[in-house]
């Protein structure tokens, strides 16, 4: 098996440790969910979040680790997350609704209360389903295989190219959003999340510029996630027949939230441009030894 010098931080053992740690964390959340631990939705959320990390990191290793293992693992991580999706979706819709209109029964009566009751019922049904599916999710997860090999310097170059492609797609959609050519937050959210988890999955602890980049991307991803939650809830409420006439308070609150989140996304999304043109942030994609050789005028990728 080809190896990179340990000082570079790209040994295959690093990726195996990353994989095994995240699979172990996912398993722990699923066991707690299966055993009926309190706060089931939190265990569902954490498990799905870790599974997303695993999917992103697995895609990042395409062309570096054996294809058979990667293909099987991607399907396993995706199917496991899907088993938990109904619980997560219902919980998020209810939480987003309460955040927009409040959950005080004295001030949310009539149609608003009716909507909340229906959302709460769906969330409860989703929680029950997640508990029932936890054992199947554990069985699926146990089928995931440990990545077998990392192909030295060639592999490292493939990984850096993957990161560059992720950044390029995110910058493209961000620019369209700023110019008003797109109102699609969902794709940008997925791209930013992929970029965040990919940088997070790189060997060695995040320090310096990579740590700063991760902090900025986290704020951006959370804002995009909140925006997507509002859109998903609006679609649900619209399909259930609660328009502006039936629930004016909700729709006014949703419009205000969308406007506020858009401003945050445009402001925080500037990190995507910084990553492409600022030497401090370009270092986030490099190993420490390579970062030292960067000069401000040099472009890479």
Structural account:
With 301 residues, this protein is mainly α. The protein has a single domain (6-292), classed as CHAD domain. Helix content is 74%, strand content 0%. The chain contains eleven helices and no strands. The protein has helices spanning 12-34, 40-60, 67-101, 111-141, 152-178, 185-201, 208-239, 248-268, 270-277, 279-282, 288-292. The radius of gyration is 21 Å and the shape is flat. The two termini are 26 Å apart. Mean pLDDT is 80; it is low at 1-9 and 294-301.
Brief account:
This protein is 74% helix and 0% strand.
Q: What class would the helix/strand composition place it in?
A: mainly alpha
Low-confidence stretches: 1-9, 294-301
Q: Supply Rg.
A: 21 Å
Distance between the termini: 26 Å
Shape: flat
Largest sheet: none
Per DSSP, what share of the residues sits in E-state strands of 2 or more residues? Answer: under 5%
Q: What is the helical fraction, as a range of percent?
A: over 70%
Domain count: 1
Look at the structure and give the CATH class.
Answer: Mainly Alpha
CATH architecture: Alpha solenoid
Number of helices: 11
Mean pLDDT: 80
Order of helices and strands: HHHHHHHHHHH
Q: Going by CATH, what is the homologous superfamily?
A: CHAD domain
CATH fold-level topology? CHAD domain
Q: Let me know the number of strands.
A: 0
